[in-house]
Structure formats: structure tokens, C-alpha cells
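pipeline/complex-builder :: batch 7 item 3
reading input block
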Amino acid sequence: QKEVEQNSGPLSVPEGAIASLNCTYSDRGSQSFFWYRQYSGKSPELIMFIYSNGDKEDGRFTAQLNKASQYVSLLIRDSQPSDSATYLCAVNPGAGNNRKLIWGLGTSLAVNP
Amino acid sequence: NAGVTQTPKFQVLKTGQSMTLQCAQDMNHNSMYWYRQDPGMGLRLIYYSASEGTTDKGEVPNGYNVSRLNKREFSLRLESAAPSQTSVYFCASSSFTDTQYFGPGTRLTVL
């Protein structure tokens, strides 16, 4: 059973702090990794994706991938109250999976003013 | 571009009624998906279509049918609705990069 695990939270951080969200996956052959944000009552929206080991930065967001340890993380710098949402991690396990993603249950983030 | 659109946004059904949820995308994506999302259960794949003319079961297909009408449209049908199908339904489409783009969702209540 291919799995993606996230801490459900809630993760609470003060405004301006760094929020760190973590995700582990079970399939060592996984090839692509995605972070989505979902506001309450809305649909998931893509924040960023990462394919290679290391860091990928996009504005205040940094995705970090470590394939050897099978985890991917999302750092949010200078957290804002508008970042309060549920963050979903998704993984493509790779060849033969027909472009299906395996989804974590999400981590709820609360940024306190 | 509208991206992924879904109709209706809200629906209330009685047990045993049928309905079709419509989804369309204008991004020329080959792959399309139907998910349901319930509290504490995350996104669960109902059916997907890797390309026009093909459909396959996902994690929770029982009680649902799908039609990939053409490259743009992918519909989900509930033949005989049950209270257990009360949920939020999302349609998504993806490109060759596997990035999935979601529609706004349909909130379905079955009484």
C-alpha cells in the first residue's frame, strides 16, 4: 500500500515566523512531489512541485526533497494570517501509475496575528 | 481560460435519486479525475481517465459511473444516491507534468 503521511496538526505559528510542514512517503521509486494549499470550503490549489533532491524556492515558499530519507517538506517564511489553511502533500509513485497522485490527509496551519 | 469548471456547485438529493456531475477543462489536458473529500478522509479518487476514450476505477468507485465525453469533458453519475455519498466532489485535470488542477467543487447532500 503506497502511503503519504502528514501530521494533521493544527500547527500554530505567530505572524512573521517560519512554518515548517513535513510529509513522508512509502514508495522509494516516487518521482514527483507536490504541495497544495486548501482554504476552508475551497478547492486545492498548487503551491509548488519538486522533482529533484534539494531545495526549490518560490517567493516565501521553499520545498525541500530528500529521497534517501523519503520526505518532502514545505517552509513558509514570514508567515501571514492569509497562509492559514490546510496544506496537502501529494506524490506520484512513478512509472505505471498512470499519472495518479497519492495524497496525504493534510496539515492544518494557523498563523496568529 | 476558465481552467476546470464544475456544475452544479450545490445539490440536495433524496435517497434513490440520480444525478450527473459535469466537469470541463479548457487546458487541453489528457488526464482527468474525480475525487470526493470527506472530513478526516482526505481526497479519495473515485475514477480517472488517463486519456480520451479510457476510464479506470480509483479507490472508491462503488455507486458511481463516469463518461469521458471528449477530451474536455468528464462526467460523474450517481445512479441511485445514498446518504453515504454526501460529500464534496472535485474534478481535476493534469498535464504531462502530473500537476493536477482542480475545479471549484460540488457540495452534495443526500437525504
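note: The mean pLDDT of chain B is 95.
queue -> next item
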